[in-house]
Design goal:
The structure is a homodimer. Chain A is an alpha/beta fold. Chain A is built from 14 helices and eleven strands.
């Protein structure tokens, strides 16, 4: 190539010096942004209508024109600033919404190694160090759960929903080994130990999944995906703290076994998304063990309590689960997504999928299948998602993560106390985790009095939704909502360790300011406008 | 907080100045690494046994101890250098293995916005600009496919396997609407137009999936996951170029319709993973249309040819497909993973999953479900994966991507020509894409002569695998293998636009050097050692 010839578009796009220049701009912009957001002076989000944002983003594509290397640097900067301005600011101390954390900045930075060098994880060869880091992390966290070294195994996958599906596939293929080959048809089970004959019989039954009534929607979704059918997802009733009722579970499993129904798994939760309830896993494990049923625990959110000496009692018995999903991108504060799946028996990793891919796996090195993740993860091309977590664990040890869990649980308790002390709020019980559920009560209603008619309840629910939307659109704070027994509630999850009591007080003050205004508006306009 | 009190671990972990310092170290290390790797002087990979790498990674976690802010910066640097040294170098010009690209560096950098600020995509509120960018990209690329503006829709998901599953779920729920509720049981179809009665009958049949015989393993996997059963995945025979045989498809669909078997979809491929064969989509669409069957095209690898005026004829008719998977993390050269799923009819986005999640979706703003991705993507928490692609399209336009496709196709043709001219190689036909499949023939065997016994074939296959492994372990080049009709072949995919003829010649020279040595070794030791 002629040294004086102008560079092609392709050469410019891969130029390492332009990369360095853009990278420097990037780092300063990100650090400045983090600094500003964490101070909490500005808005959590500058709300804009989706169509306006889409139109702006599309405008850039329509106007796209290459403007030389210098132009690229300028455009990079402009696009970067725009993207930072228009995003949701999870690092803001008044961002107390979903179970998505203010990410640890050094993990975010370290993840750029994966992104910039495109380390992937279908086969060991393609991301050897990413796979090594992932293995080390799985091993370290699995021991913390209480699993026996050498016996358990795990994997990293693209989110909790996929993690739950993966583990439930392993459970299904264990309980119903005919499905992968012949499909998920009704099947007769001939005895209580789970033995089955291979033919179809008149008393054949569809397999069922037995789940916590408040399980995350991805469990129902997994059943829909697997072709189990919503009708075959059996919900176990809850106790007064919205935990699985263990005696109801016992009765249900006994009755299913008596009827010869294939049971794929029991799905317990640690903790629930709606209110943060932790199931009594130890007792549930007793029941499952008695009936020979696979116990899966969706610990996507709460798994991290096993890193805290103070809170690990909440997952007592977790090491007895046949499979566990644990999202590091929730209470280990790493960027989305890095979901960990654990199997008590590491051989069960190979149950979920039963396949070969000749171009992928090298038959001359069969031992590599132990390290070629594609055989145990749903994904073929999969980002090396645990490298940043491995780096953070290497730099800070488990101590940082214990402190993070303890801190957000403590702040949630502070929020509960503040709300409980303020007479305009009804709080839904002591928080079991870092999730607080409550309602704003208008002046005329107090906790033990007032109109309890359906119309009044509906209006009260509408009020909560309007308060939440007002907070969202003003950008002052970010909260979510949930519906329990038909009533809407406000819901805060403390996912930023820099959120403190003073910021919580500001949120409460603002709810107290907008609540009455919105209530008056609702009284005047009625429900017809909704 | 006392300004002079020592900072807690949590405060240090979120410190914006430490972030800035680590970020600067990161950018320089990444730019230096890119520069060195692209020069092609060093190795593609420093091969190390998995257990050695795992042991090293675990060692860091065992020794983890917080060493103050300055210590963190030093450790960050050390962990970074280690991770770069131990990775696979996709930007190396002799990395010609899997369909995973040398990523565009500016896309990798821009993606750090997503990672560092943790923009996610279940609901619009949580990643408003990420969703806007994603919508703009879907719209731009969909038009390039040839879909009608306003009618088509799409989404971004975590990889091609998940994309294919998502589209096939929509197809299944369209063809077999009873499954989500009642499970994937045998069902009678009463007429050829696909009408069915709801009861089970004696002639009830399990639904089937009709697929290209060389389809990616994720299609079989999707069938296994969905509980369809491997026995109900019907493979359509191939023509001599390993494309779907259209008349065989016609016969199969006619016979299935006559028998009243529910047909979920026909899965065509553009192009195949094994050899890069493009199906005749236009003719396949004619057949599917005649029989009223959903046409899904797995264009994970080849979709990007629609960006090239020279090569877009290869996907003629793609705009007739009911659904298409198109991995931007393949021939659009963005880091893993950014898989695009398109539906010809945008309403079909909502067919794949049929659910509500009260805590997630705000009933006071029902219009938002158009922008709340969780209802159309498998994932709930999902990384904003298209932001970097949007930025690259904004800075360089579609021109860059056309040049990238044209370039890698051209280099693959150069590789074919070099191999075809060298007498020690047998090349498997002209490349249809950027994938070249070939075998090294030892001196005693030439193309039209030699021992064709099973033992000789097996030995020849062993030789290819050993050559590949030797290249991998020396780190000189990275190739893959595939098995066709029981014989192993070497396989190169050109996924780095900076790979050129001189580097390809070096690879061929090296295969010519190690091939005879390994052949001699194989003759001496025999197959017993394998």
């Amino acid at each position: 190539m002629n040294a004086t010839a102008p560079k092609s578009l392709v050469e410019i796009a891969y130029d390492s010096e332009l990369t360095r220049q853009c990278g420097r701009v990037l780092v300063d912009a990100l650090a400045d942004h983090l600094d500003g957001v964490q101070a909490g002076d500005g808005l959590v989000q500058r709300w804009r209508d989706p169509e306006l944002n889409i139109s702006d983003a599309a405008g850039w594509l329509e106007a796209a024109e290459f403007s030389g290397p210098d132009g690229v640097l300028d455009q990079f900067k402009e696009l970067l600033e725009l993207s930072l301005q228009r995003g949701q600011n999870l690092n803001h101390p008044r961002c107390v919404g979903h179970q998505v954390p203010a990410p640890l900045p050094l993990v975010g930075l370290f993840d750029a190694v994966t992104t910039m060098t495109n380390q992937v994880q279908g086969v060991y060869e393609m991301g050897p160090w990413g796979i090594a880091a992932e293995r080390a992390v799985i091993d370290r966290i699995g021991k913390q759960i209480g699993y026996t070294a050498g016996e358990f195994g795990g994997l990293v996958t693209s989110g909790g929903s996929l993690g739950n599906l993966t583990a439930l596939l392993a459970a299904r293929n264990e309980a119903c080994p005919w499905v992968w080959g012949d499909g998920n048809q009704p099947h007769a089970v001939t005895d209580e130990a789970g033995m089955h004959d291979e033919g179809q019989r008149a008393d054949a039954r569809m397999p069922v999944l037995v789940v916590h009534a408040d399980a995350h929607y991805c469990i129902d979704r997994a059943a829909g995906v697997m072709g189990i059918g919503k009708a075959n997802v059996l919900k176990v009733p809850l106790d007064e703290q919205r935990r699985m009722d263990v005696s109801a579970l016992e009765g249900l499993l006994a009755s299913l076994r008596a009827d010869g129904v294939p049971i794929i798994a029991v799905v317990a939760v640690a903790c629930t998304t709606a209110v943060g309830a932790f199931d009594p896993i130890d007792s549930i494990a007793d029941v499952c063990s008695r009936h020979g049923v696979w116990l899966h625990v969706d610990a996507a959110h709460g798994g991290a309590v096993c890193l805290s000496r103070r809170h690990r009692h909440l997952v007592r018995g977790l090491e007895r689960a046949d499979s566990v999903v644990f999202d590091a991108h929730k209470m280990m504060f790493v960027p989305a997504v890095c979901a960990l799946v654990f199997y008590r028996n590491k051989q069960n990793r190979f149950r979920a999928f039963e396949q070969t891919a000749p171009y992928l796996f090298d038959p001359s090195a069969p031992d590599m299948s132990e390290y070629d993740n594609g055989v145990v993860t749903f994904e073929c091309t999969k980002r090396s998602a645990a490298l940043g977590l491995w780096a953070a664990l290497s730099m800070f040890g488990l101590d940082l993560f214990e402190q993070l869990v303890d801190r957000v649980f403590h702040v949630a308790q502070q929020l509960y106390d503040l709300l409980d002390a303020a007479k305009q709020f009804e709080v839904l019980g002591q928080p079991q985790a870092n999730i607080v559920v409550f309602r704003f009560l208008p002046e005329m209603l107090t906790r033990q009095s007032g109109d309890t008619s359906d119309a009044a309840s509906l209006k009260l629910s509408q009020l909560q939704l309007r308060i939440r939307r007002a907070m969202l659109e003003s950008g002052f704070a970010y909260l979510t909502q949930t519906t329990l027994s038909g009533n809407a509630y406000l819901r805060c999850t403390i996912m930023n360790p820099l959120t403190d009591e003073s910021q919580l007080s500001k949120i409460i003050t603002e709810v107290n300011r907008v609540g009455p205004l919105l209530w008056t508006e609702l009284q005047e306009t009625g429900l017809a406008t909704d």
